[in-house]
């Protein structure tokens, strides 16, 4: 189980990094965020760099979380973010800047929704897929 405050912290940092990538069109900034997404998707959200910062520097100053969350939906969200970041990096590096900006903007929008409103778009997509595939298996 994971602390939802850490997930929101990570989404805030992610939104800042993605906004820098959007403003500058810098593929290397986006590539760095892609690596962060990939670590979270492959290694789990507890091992993601922003989660480590939260756990070591911020969480000790806070009380225990009121609730915890299943790490599977945020891990899926990290994978979705990695896909969008990868498409953005490819777009920027191949001269298809529109593709780079659009993919980065989608990733930014999802991170911003999580950071500002605690609405994890990738998590909801994960739950939707799980629900629809579970229903399909029963039919």
UniProtKB/TrEMBL annotation:
Keywords: Membrane, Transmembrane, Transmembrane helix
Signal sequence segment: none
Transmembrane segments: 7-24, 30-54, 75-96, 102-129
Keyword presence, Transcription: no
Domain DUF4395 per the UniProt entry, residue ranges: 2-130
Coiled coil: none
InterPro entries the record matches: DUF4395 (IPR025508), UCP030042 (IPR016942)
Database matches in Pfam families: DUF4395 (PF14340)
Keyword Transmembrane helix: yes
Protein name: DUF4395 domain-containing protein
Organism of origin: Pseudofrankia asymbiotica
């Amino acid at each position: 189980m994971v602390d939802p405050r850490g997930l929101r912290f990570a989404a805030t940092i992610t939104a800042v990094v993605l906004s820098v990538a959007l403003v500058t069109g810098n593929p290397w900034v986006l590539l760095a965020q892609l690596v962060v997404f990939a670590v979270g998707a492959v290694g789990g959200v507890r091992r993601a760099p922003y989660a480590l910062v939260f756990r070591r520097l911020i969480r000790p100053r806070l009380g225990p979380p009121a609730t915890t969350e299943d790490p599977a939906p945020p891990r899926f969200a990290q994978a979705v973010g990695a896909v969008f970041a990868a498409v953005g990096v490819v777009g920027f590096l191949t001269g298809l800047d529109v593709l780079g900006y659009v993919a980065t903007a989608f990733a930014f929008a999802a991170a911003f929704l999580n950071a500002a409103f605690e609405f994890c778009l990738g998590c909801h997509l994960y739950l939707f897929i799980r629900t629809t595939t579970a229903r399909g298996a029963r039919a």
